[in-house]
Amino acid sequence: MKILILGGDGYLGWPTAMSFAKKNHEVLVVDNYLRRNIARETRSEALIPMPNLHDRVGIFYQATGKTIGVEIADCKDYMLLSRIVRDFKPDTVVHYAEQPSGPYSMTDYQSARLTFDNNLTVTFNTIWAILEEVPDCHLVKLGTMGEYGTPNIDIEEGWLEIEHKGRKDRFLYPRQAGSLYHTTKVLDTDLLWFYVRTYGMRVTDLMQGPVYGLSTAESDLDERLLPNFHYDDIFGTVVNRFLVQAIAGVPLTVYGKGGQTRGYLNLKDTLQCVELATLNPVEKGDLRILNQLTEQFTVNELAEKTQRVGNQLGLNVQVKSVKNPRKEAEDHYYNTQHSGLLDLGLKPHYLTDEVMEEMLKTVMKYKDRIDEKMILPRVKWS
Ligand code: USQ
What we know:
By secondary structure, the chain is α/β, with parallel strands linked by helices. Helix content is 38%, strand content 19%. The protein has helices at 13-22, 34-41, 53-64, 78-88, 102-105, 109-133, 180-199, 238-248, 267-279, 299-312, 340-344, 353-364; strands spanning 2-6, 26-31, 69-72, 92-95, 138-144, 159-164, 167-172, 202-208, 211-212, 252-255, 261-266, 287-292, 295-298, 319-322. Strand 1 (2-6), helix 1 (13-22) and strand 2 form a beta-alpha-beta unit. The structure holds sulfoquinovose-uridine-C1,5'-diphosphate. Sulfoquinovose-uridine-C1,5'-diphosphate (USQ) is lined by residues 100-102, 144-146, 182, 208-210, 237-238, 241, 253-255, 260, 262, 299, 326, 328.
């Protein structure tokens, strides 16, 4: 397949590009280094040094003999994006090209504006580039489980049948996100649904939970191919942060009561899910929503697991509740339906003690690069 990856420099985009290229798909990645630039400006740089895309593509070629095309371009520029789509003629566009941090989107007007403009404009441009240049192309879009928030009822897989005054209809599942970033994903889903039902696009919207890990079949070939692994309060997701905190000897930063429950998955499973969605495209006029997670944990459960496995490795891991910088429920009902990807063939990698140990050992190699000033939360929701 010809696969165009928007946001191909990211934590998920780069491993996805390598994984598809290794399997002999023709891959082109597009990125404008937005996350790298924000990370530099906000002092939130990744733990592991990351060569730029052109250099990494060269390293990947040396390791595998496979090529990946690169375009350094801003997908907000419609003329540029439509030219790329017209020239490459993808069968699938995988769209990751968004500002992905909840905390960054809550910093101030400028960061909120950037998140809003970037995320909505790139989704809109992607829709139009497909409609105008490759109308049969399947769009695989990364959404987030955070679109649903934490409702006091089961979270269904995208849709909810509602009975009202004796009549029934099916609607997008109600969504109420907890940050502006997560809200841009809600708006993306509404845009996609409009263009699917009105223009007959084919779209898969993946509602993904927080991802953890570094190792993939391809990144294991050469450490310069590792994904950009963040542990700061802005780009770091909770498991990755806890791994680094355990190694640095900083008490694990449980926000508030720690009863916040989310659906998590291993980076390896993100790759499987995106591949399964790509290899099984939907019909024209279909919006398929898949909940992309493999298991649920509270923050306290993640902290206990990190502490137990870290201590077995001889670390002295402490856990400390810090005042929650976010406005979120700290003790709530959470039960998600997530059978769609399993039905397509997903074989989950669960967060076992062995997986935790392997991640801790990898992070340990970069201990000297940890900057403790980047760990405590700097952005408050209000
Ligand atoms: N948390 C802590 N301590 C920390 C960091 C986070 O207790 O040091 C808590 C948060 O308050 C939250 C939970 O852990 O309740 C998850 O936080 P997170 O930072 O790992 O995840 P989140 O901000 O929701 O965002 C991340 C990615 C985002 C993706 C999302 C999936 O940055 O791109 O969309 O995970 S989801 O959470 O399902 O919406």
